[in-house]
Design brief:
The structure holds two protein chains of two kinds. Chain A has strands spanning 3-5, 10-14, 19-21, 24-26, 33-39, 46-52, 59-61, 64-69, 74-79, 88-95, 101-103, 107-112. In chain A, strand 5 (33-39) and strand 6 (46-52) form a beta hairpin. By secondary structure, chain A is mostly beta strands. Chain B is built from no helices and eleven strands. Chain B is globular, with a radius of gyration of 13 Å. In chain B, 0% of the residues lie in helices and 51% in strands. By secondary structure, chain B is an all-beta fold. Chain B has strands at residues 5-7, 10-13, 19-24, 31-37, 44-50, 53-57, 65-68, 75-79, 88-95, 100-102, 106-110. Classes of the chains: A mainly beta, B mainly beta. The interface between A and B is medium-sized, with 18 and 23 residues.
């Protein structure tokens, strides 16, 4: 079965600092998908990115960037120049080849002015 | 952008009452899921549904819970006799092969 570990429970930064969220997964599948979601205080899950296991290209979207390292089974997420609006819980998730979804425990990001 | 719709967005119910949470999955999807998130905790799997039957369920999904697809479009989660500890955010998801889409969630408050 897949397992997703987000070892950081909470990260506190001051505005404009960069913050990196770690995600490590375990899987026996060769085909799988990786996701990041943002959950603001209002509670909904906001989709941020999806990656498949064959695409190891890193991605940048505005202040967000993702580093997928298959060799270390990690899919880390960096927020550059953090803002107060980035304060939220961030979840890493996987989907295996059978469609089974697995969430990490989430990392609470607190950005203070 | 395809969308999974959940209603209501927030429901308050008295302990012991039955609640039905509704979800409209994406129309050509075949796999459906319910997840629960107690406030401040992780998102937990409840149940998956395929071909009009439960394909997998977690320990949380006891006899108080049931799911059905009553009319071929809606996908419902029923809690027969709610307890205080059922207060949580409930997320529906549908899966079409390679990607799952989540609804906005229903916040259930049991008082």
């Amino acid at each position: 079965a897949q397992k997703v570990t987000q070892a950081q429970t909470e990260i506190s930064v001051v505005e404009k600092e960069d913050v990196t969220l770690d995600c490590v997964y375990e899987t026996r599948d060769t085909t799988y998908y990786l996701f990041w979601y943002k959950q603001p205080p209002s509670g909904e899950l906001v989709f941020l990115i999806r990656r498949n296991s064959f695409d190891e290209q890193n991605e940048i979207s505005g202040r967000y960037s993702w580093n997928f390292q298959k060799s270390t089974s990690s899919f880390n997420f960096t927020i550059t120049a953090s803002q107060v609006v980035d304060s939220a819980v961030y979840f890493c998730r996987t989907t295996d080849s059978w469609g089974k979804l697995q969430f990490g425990a989430g990392t609470q990001v607190v950005v203070t002015p | 952008e395809p969308e999974v719709t959940q209603t209501p967005s927030h429901q308050v119910t008295q302990m012991g009452q039955e609640v039905i949470l509704r979800c409209v999955p994406i129309s050509n999807h075949l796999y459906f899921y319910w997840y629960r998130q107690i406030l401040g905790q992780k998102v937990e799997f409840l149940v998956s549904f395929y071909n009009n039957e439960i394909s997998e369920k977690s320990e949380i999904f006891d006899d108080q819970f049931s799911v059905e697809r009553p009319d071929g479009s809606n996908f419902t989660l029923k809690i027969r006799s709610t307890k205080l500890e059922d207060s949580a955010m409930y997320f529906c998801a549908s899966h079409g092969g390679t990607e799952a889409f989540f609804g906005q969630g229903t916040r259930l408050t049991v008082v």
